[in-house]
């Protein structure tokens, strides 16, 4: 476990945002990351990840952990109970966990914080503050087992800052802006870190010095304005270190440029090596990342990260708005051939659905089955496999899946669209296999117990029509039309019912309405009732008015 502390003498220099960018990139490289928010008076890490966190009101945190120690004179048995997950681990990114400061929205938080006597904790005879923090670090190492522990330190020259900089850190990121107050304070912190007269501290941590809020090069400027600032600051710091007889020199000063966009809304900006036009601040974070991971990443990890990036780009293209369905199939096949090892279930699932969308039922079935081998309990995959069987007239296989899904969803008290669709499709499969009573009972349950919808009323009307109960079918199709008078399907269903009743005038009136609302040949050719009308010139001419020219037999 490598521990890196991010510190700034004053706030407002982008310290926490820098830490958050580094944490995210480490996770993308497959490294497990744990963060600690040691800025107890003004914790900031949660706000950088507020889109990922369920809530900013944590049940427990570092202050609660500290308070338990102060109260009982011993640390809690484990630290994991005080942690929260910021980002769940995925196929392409490892987990990020956080030991937050605590619930700052609670009055108890500030009472607990004020009850911690730091002088007593660190300086009284037989004080055990140092041992406490070593124990905390060891617990994190053993329980969380992160590759990297990133600490967001408190500002100023304080006990907590001293602990996070000198006792806990393997490396330190010191951030400053170019003004006298910040630079003078940073010099004193440098001296504190490097003066190793306390044998407990051992070898001082490696230091990465970062100048923040640096001006960007403007159009027409031949030389970056940051260059002179960096050279001046570097000379100042090294002169200070020499004067204080400290055996250390700042070899490199990293930068983080100003970014006006971040003043409107903060976001993670770290760049990628393959970006065409990365922002200045994005490249700054990337250079900082390289410095912090120098020698840590293997060639295999770098190659894997590059492949993950290529896969993410391909995914973005696959799901880009307006992408043709057939083209999406081709791109998903490419993803499967190149990146199956990275995200197999996801690729197989979407490839199967892509084939389903283009009507290639055989391939849809193949990939749905492969997807189910990886995750046999996924409801959506099972539902679409059942649909594929049903479309190919393998109704018994479809019903086997529908019935299991229906039972599971019913037991879980599901009342969402999936439950509606499973119920409806199961009812239709019962109808196709001659199980009329089961079908009618199921659809009656749908219209009586589920949320009213024109789709469900219309389907029930169609089923009643198919079993010859035309009067009841009329009742339900009128309910559908009350909810959706401008939808073509209930108008078409009404036309079909009238056709069965021999009411040709009503048939033509309603089928004309359905055609005007978007009824297509694909829907017409599925229903045998239209066969007799295709022999009538009136119907042929009506279809022609809507650019429908039947060429297939029904």
UniProtKB/TrEMBL annotation:
Entry coiled-coil feature ranges: none
AAA domain segment(s): 1-194
The name this protein goes by in its record: AAA domain-containing protein
Classification via PANTHER family: SEPTUM SITE-DETERMINING PROTEIN MIND HOMOLOG, CHLOROPLASTIC (PTHR43384:SF6), SEPTUM SITE-DETERMINING PROTEIN MIND HOMOLOG, CHLOROPLASTIC-RELATED (PTHR43384)
Keywords: ATP-binding, Nucleotide-binding, TPR repeat
Repeat region (TPR), residues: 345-378, 454-487
GO molecular function, one term: ATP hydrolysis activity
Species per Swiss-Prot/TrEMBL record: uncultured Aureispira sp
């Amino acid at each position: 476990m490598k521990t890196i502390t991010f510190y700034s003498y004053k706030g407002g220099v982008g310290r926490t945002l820098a830490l958050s960018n580094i944490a995210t990139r480490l996770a993308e490289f497959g490294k497990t990351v744990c963060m600690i928010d040691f800025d107890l008076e003004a914790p900031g890490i949660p706000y950088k990840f507020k889109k990922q966190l369920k809530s900013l009101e944590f049940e427990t945190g570092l202050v609660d952990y500290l308070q338990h120690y102060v109260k009982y004179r011993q640390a809690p048995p484990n630290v994991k109970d005080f942690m929260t997950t910021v980002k769940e681990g995925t196929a392409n990114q490892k987990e990020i966990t956080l030991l937050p400061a605590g619930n700052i929205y609670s009055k108890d938080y500030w009472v607990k914080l004020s009850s911690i006597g730091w002088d007593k904790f660190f300086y009284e005879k037989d004080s055990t503050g140092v041992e406490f923090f070593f124990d905390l670090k060891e617990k994190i190492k053993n329980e969380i087992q992160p590759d990297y522990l990133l600490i967001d330190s408190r500002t100023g020259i304080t006990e907590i800052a001293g602990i996070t900089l000198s006792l806990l850190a393997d490396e330190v990121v010191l951030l400053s802006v170019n003004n006298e107050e910040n630079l003078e304070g940073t010099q004193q912190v440098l001296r504190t870190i490097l003066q190793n007269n306390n044998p407990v501290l051992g070898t001082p941590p490696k230091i990465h010095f970062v100048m923040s809020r640096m001006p960007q090069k403007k159009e027409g400027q031949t030389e970056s304005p940051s260059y002179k600032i960096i050279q001046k600051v570097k000379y100042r710091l090294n002169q200070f270190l020499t004067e204080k007889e400290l055996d250390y020199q700042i070899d490199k000063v990293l930068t983080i440029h100003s970014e006006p966009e971040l003043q409107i809304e903060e976001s993670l900006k770290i760049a990628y090596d393959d970006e065409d036009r990365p922002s200045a601040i994005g490249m700054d974070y990337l250079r900082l990342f390289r410095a912090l991971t120098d020698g840590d990443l293997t060639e295999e990890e770098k190659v894997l990260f590059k492949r993950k990036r290529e896969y993410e780009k391909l995914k973005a293209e696959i799901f880009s708005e307006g992408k043709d369905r057939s083209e999406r199939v081709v791109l998903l096949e490419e993803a499967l051939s190149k990146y199956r090892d990275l995200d197999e279930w996801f690729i197989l699932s979407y490839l199967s659905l892509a084939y389903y969308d283009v009507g290639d039922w055989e391939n849809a079935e193949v990939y749905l089955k492969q997807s189910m081998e990886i995750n046999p309990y996924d409801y959506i995959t099972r539902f679409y496999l059942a649909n594929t069987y049903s479309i190919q007239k393998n109704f018994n296989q479809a019903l086997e899946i529908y019935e299991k899904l229906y039972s599971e969803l019913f037991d879980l008290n599901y009342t969402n669209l999936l439950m509606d669709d499973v119920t409806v499709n199961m009812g239709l499969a019962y109808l196709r296999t001659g199980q009329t009573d089961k079908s009618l009972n199921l659809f009656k349950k749908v219209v009586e117990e589920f949320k009213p919808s024109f789709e469900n009323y219309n389907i029930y009307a169609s089923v009643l029509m198919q079993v010859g109960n035309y009067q009841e079918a009329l009742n339900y199709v009128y309910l559908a039309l009350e909810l959706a008078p401008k939808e073509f399907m209930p108008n078409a269903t009404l036309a079909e019912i009238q056709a069965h009743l021999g009411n040709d005038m009503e048939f033509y009136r309603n089928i004309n309405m359905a055609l005007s609302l978007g009824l297509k040949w694909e829907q017409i050719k599925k229903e045998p009732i239209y066969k007799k009308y295709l022999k009538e010139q009136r119907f042929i001419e009506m279809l022609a008015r809507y650019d429908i020219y039947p060429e297939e037999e029904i």
